[in-house]
Amino acid sequence: MRIGVCIKQVPDTDSHLRIADSGRGIDDSNLNWVISSCDLCAVEEALLLAEAEVSRGAERPELVVFSLGPARVEEALRKALALGFDRALHLVDEALEGGDALSDGRALAAALARERCDLVLAGAQSDDLGQAATPAVIAEILGCPYAWLVMAVELDSRGKSLRIVRELEAGMNEILKLELPAVLAIQAGINRPRFASLRGTLQARKKPLRREDCSGLGVDPGLVGAAGAGIETEAVSLPPAGAGGVVIEGASAEAAAGELIANLEREAVL
């Protein structure tokens, strides 16, 4: 069995964001980049599934990590290798830049198809854009069953199907059985991602990390990156600053409450 995990490198949520000179994105020159939190949970879930297979006497699945982006993405891939993945595939090409969930999904699906992954895991949504669409695009292109907001995964004893728990609204869950191959979008909180050991970090330097461009993937450059995107960003701006709060003073709690209600009525909140 081969398990593929797609990860995305995103700006650290503590980063101070600045609008780029073009006005169509953020200035990424001085940002700290990390693996998106849901993707980290997908990485951990793949490791747990592999360990569960070994514990019951089955052959350990091969774990392959995929990511798309510029040279800096190699750091994220090396982290997954340090955690226990066997090899990595970096999709890097100028033609792949500026894509959205649709065009990035096409590129990742091409790589996953070539690797013949039996199970594909990805985060339910990224920490930066949060569109929650790339795994669905991958599943559609591969023609595989797909589940979103997955909270638990269990392989059957034959390694032919999955039992999954999916999060629904109002605190409810849904239990599904999916035949392999399948694509799962992992929800944050499904597990507690581990830290890489020093030994794992040293071993990661020797593990295979392959780079592929559009020609190697066999995809049309016009269908990936900015050329194949279904969404075009016209402008990015910071939200307007608030006008400040209102301090309500009253001789008693009743008087303050009355003044609060009057303010809410004036603002058409009540």
Fill in the keyword field for this structure:
Rossmann fold; 8 helices; 23% strand; 270 residues; alpha/beta
Structure description:
The structure is a single chain. This protein is an alpha/beta fold and 270 residues long. It has a 9-stranded mixed sheet, with helices on both faces. Strands 2-3 form a two-stranded antiparallel ribbon. The chain has helices at residues 37-55, 73-83, 101-115, 134-142, 198-204, 214-217, 225-228, 253-266; strands at 2-6, 9-11, 33-35, 62-68, 87-91, 119-123, 146-155, 161-167, 173-179, 182-186, 209-212. It starts with a strand and ends with a helix. The longest helix is centred in the first third of the chain and has 19 residues, at 37-55. It is 31% helix and 23% strand. The mean pLDDT is 92.
Total strand segments: 11
CATH superfamily of the largest domain: HUPs
> Hey, roughly how much beta strand do the residues contain?
15-25%
Shape: globular
Q: What's the tally of helices? A: 8
- State the helical fraction: 25-40%
Radius of gyration: 23 Å
Q: What structural class should be given to the helix and strand makeup? A: alpha/beta
For the record, the CATH architecture of the largest domain stands as 3-Layer(aba) Sandwich
CATH topology description of the largest domain? Rossmann fold
Task: Indicate the CATH class of the largest domain.
Answer: Alpha Beta
- Chain-averaged pLDDT: 92
Q: Separation of termini?
A: 59 Å
**Total domain modules:** 2
Looking across the biggest beta sheet, what order are the strands in?
9-8-7-10-6-1-4-5-11
Taking pLDDT < 50 over at least 5 consecutive residues as the criterion, the unreliable ranges are: none
Largest sheet: 9 strands, mixed
